[in-house]
Write a structure and sequence with these properties.
This protein has about 250 residues and is α/β, with parallel strands linked by helices. The protein contains nine helices and seven strands; from the N terminus they run ααββαααβααβαββαβ. The protein binds zinc ion (ZN) (2 copies). The site of one zinc ion has 8 residues, from α2.
């Protein structure tokens, strides 16, 4: 097979999966069951697991229980030099939520990711109301990832938040620098901050001045990506930068 034909295979396989997705009856995005529907994307049992809430670290959003919030730093973030002020999530990137995010990203439709976004909004409704956000910016995907996926999960979640708060969502202000790619998973955590340096640029930075900005992404791991975006926004005059993600990866 020539290289040209070989490069056509992944899109064709994706296309077949999309046809199958549309043809089959409703199915839970997490466990695959076809009954006991809880909402558009998840069965009642999986929905219960997703909405099981616990206290989160005020600074990084990690689930830490009732005693970890006092100092504002937890085992997941105490060595992280974040440039954003605070972060929140729906839950940790584990079990049902991890499966929900992985399966939602693979789906042709953004409906399941939207359902995750709606759960996130209702979980963090009070925190969001207290922030008085002026503008919501989704974290853009690395340029190569854009060709692999049908949608940017961060865009979908940001639209849910913007719709609920009636705050403008702008997916074009924050841009990935051309040619920049996500670092390999093997890169030590400490070096990820260095690797993210200058990975973004701002378009029309003037609108950011004096604003409270909410950065939105699907998953927060070390915080290096959101921290670099926050650094750039603060340099452009943003008053405050906060982060909202669907899931927080345990980071020790
Ligand atoms: Zn289920
Ligand atoms: Zn923390």
């Amino acid at each position: 097979m020539t290289m040209h034909l070989r490069s056509l295979l992944p899109p064709l396989q994706r296309g077949m999966r999309h046809i199958v997705e549309f043809a089959l009856p409703w199915q839970c995005t997490i466990c695959g069951c076809r009954d006991d529907r809880g909402n558009d994307a998840f069965c009642a049992d999986c929905l219960g697991q997703l909405t099981h809430t616990q206290d989160q670290c005020r600074r990084c959003g990690a689930v830490i229980g009732p005693f970890g919030t006092a100092t504002g730093r937890c085992p997941h973030c105490r060595r992280r030099p974040f440039r954003f002020r605070s972060a929140r999530c729906l839950n940790m990137y584990e079990e049902a939520l991890k499966t929900a995010i992985v399966h939602s990203k693979q789906s042709f439709s953004s409906a399941a990711m939207m359902a995750v976004g709606q759960l996130l909004v209702s979980r963090q409704r009070q925190w969001l109301a207290e922030l008085s956000v002026d503008r919501i910016l989704p974290i853009p995907q690395a340029w190569l990832t854009r060709f692999r996926r049908n949608f940017n999960p961060a865009d979908v979640i940001a639209r849910c938040v913007g719709h609920s708060l009636r705050v403008p969502v702008d997916p074009h202000i924050l841009r990935r620098r051309r040619g920049w790619q996500s670092p390999q998973k093997a890169v030590p955590l400490a070096r990820r901050y260095e690797n993210q340096r200058n990975s973004f640029r701002l378009r029309d930075a003037r609108v950011i001045a004096g604003q409270c900005v909410l950065l939105v992404d699907d998953v927060l791991t070390t915080g290096a990506t959101c921290s670099e975006a926050a650094r750039l926004l603060k340099a452009a005059g943003a008053k405050e930068v906060h982060v909202l993600v669907a899931a927080r990866v345990a980071d020790h």
